[in-house]
Amino acid sequence: MQLGLVGLGRMGGNMRERLRRAGHEVVGYAHDPKVSDVASIQELVGKLAAPRVVWVMVPADVTDSVIEELAGVMAQGDIIIDGGNSRFSNDKPRAERLGKRGIGYVDCGVSGGVWGIEYGYGLMVGGADEHVQRCMPIFEALKPEGPYGFVHAGGVGAGHYAKMVHNGIEYGLMHAYAEGYELMRASEYIDDVPGVIKSWREGTVVKSWLLDLLDRALEEDPELAGVRGYAEDTGEGRWTVEEAIRLAVPLNVIADSLFARFASRQEDSPAMKAVAALRFQFGGHAVKKD
C-alpha cells in the first residue's frame, strides 16, 4: 500500500522504516532535506496514486496548519490520519471541515516511542468504519505481532481520547515506581536498590515495560546522578484530569501524579514557604532561611 507520511521525527522516521520493512511504499516529508523524500507537501501528494492516504505525525501545535495545507492539494476520496498527540476535542471539527471537501479523517493515538520500530506500536484509532478499513494494511504493519496492540475505539475522536487516558495511566504507573524507588533509597534496610528493581522484572505482579525501562536507566546510572528531578508534561495528563472533573470521575492517582510533575519544576515551592511560615506563626517551629 502507498502512504504519505508528514513528520519524520523520532517516531515518524521509525514508522516509515517499519512500514517499508513490511513492503509498503512510503513517501515521507520533513523540513529537514536530509531525511525527507520530497521537497514539499505538494510534491508528496503528487507522488501518491488516488485515492490517497496521508499520515500526519507532527507536534500538536502545528497539526491544524499541516492538515489545512494537505487539504488544499488533496482530493475527494482521500484520507488524512492524524497520529500526533492532538486533543480529542479537535478531531470532530477537523473531520467536519475535511468532510465538506470529501476527504476522510482518522485520528490515531500512537504508543511505543523509540522502541516501536522493533516491537510495534500500540494504535488506538477513531473514525468511520470505511476509512479505518481502508487504512488497515498500514495499521497491521505498525502494530505488534499477535492479537494485541490495535483497537478501533469508536468514531472520530475516540482514538485520541483513548490515547489521552492511556497517557494518564502512564503518569500514575511511572509515579508509583518512582515513589517505591525513593522509599528504598531512603531505607536503611535496602543495600541494592537497582538489584531490587531488576528482580521485579519477572515473577511479580508489578512487572511491566516501564519497570524494564527503569531497570535500564539504573544500569546506565545507578544513582540517577546525571538526571535532574524535573518532569515535563505534554498535555494528555492535564486533559485526562479535566475530563475527570467534567464527568465527576475520581482520578486520585492520575491527578496526584500530574501535580507531582508540577512540583518538580519548583526550585523552592511558594506553597511550602507558606506552610513553613504558618508553622512558625502558630507554633514557633523552626524556619530555614535562604
Q: Strand order of the main beta sheet, please? A: 2-1-3-4-5-6-7
Average of the residue pLDDT scores: 94
What is the name of the CATH class of the largest domain? Alpha Beta
* Radius of gyration from CA coordinates: 23 Å
How many distinct beta strands?
7
Structural summary, described in words:
The protein contains twelve helices and seven strands. With 290 residues, the chain is α/β, with parallel strands linked by helices. It folds into two domains: 2-155, NAD(P)-binding Rossmann-like Domain (Rossmann fold); 164-267, N-(1-d-carboxylethyl)-l-norvaline Dehydrogenase, domain 2, CATH 1.10.1040.10. The chain has a seven-stranded mixed β-sheet, with helices on both faces. Helix 7 crosses helix 10 and helix 7 (158-186) crosses helix 11. The relative contact order is 0.09.
Question: What attributes does this structure have?
Answer:
290 residues; N-(1-d-carboxylethyl)-l-norvaline Dehydrogenase, domain 2; 12% strand; seven-stranded mixed beta sheet
Annotate the secondary structure layout.
Blueprint: E1 2-6, H1 12-21, E2 25-29, H2 41-46, E3 53-56, H3 60-73, E4 79-82, H4 91-99, E5 104-111, H5 116-119, E6 122-126, H6 129-142, E7 150-154, H7 158-186, H8 193-199, H9 209-220, H10 236-247, H11 252-264, H12 270-283
Parallel strand pairs: 1-2, 1-3, 3-4, 4-5, 6-7
Antiparallel strand pairs: 5-6
Helix pairs in contact: 7-10, 7-11
